[in-house]
Amino acid sequence: MYEVKGRERVRGERLGRYVVEFSCRWPSEVGHLYLVSSFTSFFPGRVELTREGQRGRAVVKLWEGVYPYRFASTCGVSFPDEENPLRTTVRLWPDMDYTEEFSLAAVGVQELLRASREGELSPDVVVHDERDPAFISYYLGHTVVRLKAPRGVLTRVFIETRGGTAAPMERFCSNEWVDVFQGMVVGRIEPYRFVLEADGEKVLFGDNGLGDEEYISPERVVGVDEPRWYLGATYYLVFPDSFTRSSGILERRPRSRLGGRLKDITSGLDHVASLGVDAIYLTPIYRASSYHRYDVADHTAIDESLGGWEDWFELVREAGGRGIRLVLDIVAHHASPCSREFSEALLNPASPYRSWFRFFREPCESEVEALRRYVSEGCRELPRELWGRRPFYEAFMCNWLMPKLNYSNPEVVERLLGIAAFWLERGAGGFRVDVGHAIPDHVLRAFYEKVKEVCRDCVVVLEITKGAGLYPLGIVADSAMNYDLRALLLEFLVYGTIDAAQFVERVKELYASMPVHVAHSMYNLLGSHDTPRIATLCEKCGARCLRALYVALFATPGSPSIYYGDEVGMRGGGDPDNRLPMVWNEEVWDKELLSLIRRLSALRRRLKPLRLGFFDAEPIGGEAVKLTRWWEGEEVVVLLSRGPAGAELPKEYLDVESGKLVGEVALEPYSWRILYSRKS
């Protein structure tokens, strides 16, 4: 069951998030139980239930919303709330048909719907929480401030500072129950309050909430005061084993090594640099047993099949000479049975490493012996007697070869921080945190602070497969993989399951859920080593559809990413065929797509609004959207359609591709226009 226990108090009478308790009967033969919802990316790990007798409980602080949820272990147990009759079906990936039934928790929405319906303005339904960087953040000389109120109740909102500055706020986005207002003040903001207008009357909203005239003074405003390289950067994702010239063209990818080496990446740097790339994100390069290397045995050793330290330092040097940084995949969630820590814990129940993992049942002697044999024989193949059985320890997706780390042990946290320092000192430009959505917030924050302590300009990107705006980005990371944006792009342009208005509303709601500097750092992607190739998904809508997706990717705030080979139209279905060897034969490349991506990347480098600019969007009928970016007196408008559409512009713009001035545009299906002007 779930129960809303109350609200946080921001200050005085001013209210913040809802305090929600989730509980269930504890299932038998389960050592650890987790709450799984959109705020955990539908994965067990971030929120753990505490056992109290025969029940488990977890208390979570949430903003208003409707949350699907289940209870689950890391292996074998997953169930909806038997005490809650409300149910929904969730499709967990936009390009997969798999769905699952979840219970529903409605948090705060009834109060907001009632206030919206009755036009009510009361202290509990107007929200600004300066402790949350989604409500106030600093971005390159501007302070961006947000406030939420019941939908349709407020007609106008202003920010008013103690120094006498008044700035209007616009209704940036809305959902079924709330409007989000956004405003900007040049420079660091002085203590401030809000002036709200409703039904022709003005009401102050200050430090003590509605009706209070005292100014709000945040203790800290997070953000960036200079253009860090990862703001609007372009990434190139390399799966090292597949980035090889020696395998030729394969129709199917074996789950074994193809022989890619660090030297292959170095030799491919000129091609990567031709795409205007700022950073290469490398999936794991550490000593491991599998071809994907997510079963890391030693984070401080380069896998021998990739090369050695000389090869790594050569790659760092050659990439740096081309202005390209290297972002490493750190496998923070789990280890390998062949790691020193796990193998010692397995062989010796009294080992201090035993508490680094969670052994929740007594294993059969045959299970222990099989694992010992696996380790002693070099971790080559999982013994057959373990096939079909569940591990006796917590593991990633029930995988014997990926034992989950126990972050309730401070030594495990310190290990992670040590790995970060080790690689930053050896030339890494930052990290992508694998399974970041399933690691406790306090661990992510400690990791982030350690990275920034060692290298202020290094980036931390979390893997979050759903619900990135429900994580404290800006506090625990600079960025996250923007699978939410990817899903919206596919739904609008490829599958046609949402119209232009729905796309715009949901994209703006996504960006309003995070600080502005985080929105500009988000790792925006169409494909990765965990998804089918984007060219394969677009076979149902055609080549122009694929190109329109890339235009959208480079036009929205954040950092566009290119998965190796996608720039030349490589195809492949799910894992492992999305990891086929890089195609180096230029005769089979999609050269029109490659040319487009190079032009888009060059435009982002030349036009600051596309890389750093503020963002707005609006629908053009049901089939097209207008994306607007502006920065320092320059404006870029991108018109993008999936069907026939026309747009009259408020003034003449320069079409950057044709070089002509235009004031009216007709769009064919899957077409676009990129327009530029100086703002008056």
UniProtKB/TrEMBL annotation:
InterPro entries the UniProt entry points to: GH, GH13_cat_dom, Glyco_hydro_13_lg-like_dom, Ig-like_fold, SMMA_beta-sandwich_2
Highest taxon listed in the record's lineage: Archaea
UniProt entry keywords in alphabetical sequence: Glycosidase, Hydrolase
Keyword Hydrolase: yes
GO biological process: carbohydrate metabolic process
Cleavable signal peptide: none
Residue ranges constituting the Glycosyl hydrolase family 13 catalytic domain according to the UniProt record: 237-604
MF annotations from Gene Ontology: hydrolase activity, hydrolyzing O-glycosyl compounds
PANTHER family in alphabetical order: ALPHA-AMYLASE FAMILY MEMBER, MALTODEXTRIN GLUCOSIDASE
Protein name: Glycoside hydrolase family 13 protein
Protein species of origin: Thermofilum pendens
